[in-house]
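Lab notebook page, bench 4
Experiment: in silico fold of construct C2
Operator: M.H.
Input chain length: 65 residues
Purpose: comparison with the prior construct
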Amino acid sequence: MSKKDEHVSGATHQRSSNADPLGTNSEIARKLKQYYDELVVDEVPDRFADLLSQLEKAEPARKKD
């Protein structure tokens, strides 16, 4: 690789990293954030909430034993 090629290659890499600090990982980060946001918005199903309530009631009785 000539010095000119290195300069052009380095400039291209530098430009893309300035535009997108995550580089190739930006799409992964975007999808993870989208998935997390969807999870936070979802409500807890009634059956799961009932099970959690039963567990909370059982904990004080278990600590007394």
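Observations: The helical segments are 3-19, 26-41, 46-64. Residues 3-64 form one domain.
Next step: discuss at group meeting.
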